[in-house]
Amino acid sequence: MIGRLAGRLEYRAADHVLIDVRGVGYVVYVSDRVLAQLPGAGEAVALYTELLVREDILQLFGFPTLVEKEWHRLLTTVQGVGAKASLAILGALGPDALGRAVALGDWSAVAKAKGVGPKTAQRVVNELKDKAPSVMAMAATAPAMPAPEEDALIDEGDAPSAPASPAPRRAAARGNAAAQSEALSALSNLGYAPSDAAGAVAEAAGAAPQADTPTLIRAALRLLAPKE
Question: What is the largest CA-CA distance in the chain?
């Protein structure tokens, strides 16, 4: 099983890239969102990968984080969602927005992905709602895009290229993921069901993307309070 690739990005296509790893080229399919985040040709790149094995084909799919890879794995367990449809959903929403959509049962957000109809979108939120809390919690501790090894980039004496990565944006997203995870844990300790807690935290985080842990907890508790 190929779970991770680190090397030099050789070229981009509409839905995939070619990564050279010590002279061996790997074709890796990625979402539109991931494609836009990757560096230019000739630069360092690293992706977590999922290998699809069929009788007539082997395909690699690439993800910048283990959380996104886990969402891909879960999405492809839903009837009617293949690997390409999963990439379309992740490309349209990203892992954080997908987590919120599933936790809140917002199938219309999932249906915005190209080629995903209302019935399939409803199956996604219905079948994955109970699994959303664990993936949302995973976002706080899972490593981000792995750093390419420098020795994988050395070719005929050339110095390795520095990876072009949007570090500040990833750091901010990671901070918000950590706050959501901590809020989920706190609500679970208070006795709230995981799916209810995840829905409240997702709604609170959607309203205040930069909120810290205490702010998210207070907002989620207000949402969970019995309505008079």
Answer: 72
Give the confidence band of 124 by pLDDT, cuts at 50, 70, 90: very high
Phi, psi angle pair for 227, to nearest 5°: -85, 130
Residues 178 and 210 in one domain: yes
Give the N- to C-terminal CA distance of the chain in Å, as an integer.
Answer: 54
Task: Please tell me the distance from the alpha carbon of residue 191 to that of residue 196, in angstroms, as a whole number.
Answer: 10
Considering only 41-50, 131-140, 202-211, which range has the smallest mean pLDDT?
Answer: 131-140
| Enclosing domain of residue 52 | 4-64
By residue count, the chain amounts to 228
- CATH number of the domain encompassing residue 20: 2.40.50.140
Model pLDDT for residues 47-61, shown as the tens digit of each residue: 999 999 887 888 999
Same domain, 60 and 102: no
**pTM of the predicted model as reported, rounded to 2 decimal places:** 0.74
Task: Say if 159 falls within a structural domain.
Answer: no
SS3 165: coil
Q: How far apart are CA 10 and CA 26, in angstroms?
A: 10
Among residues of the chain, what percentage have pLDDT more than 70? 83
Considering the domain architecture, whether residues 124 and 78 belong to the same structural domain is answered as yes
Burial of 121 (0-12, 13-18, 19+ CB in 10 A): buried
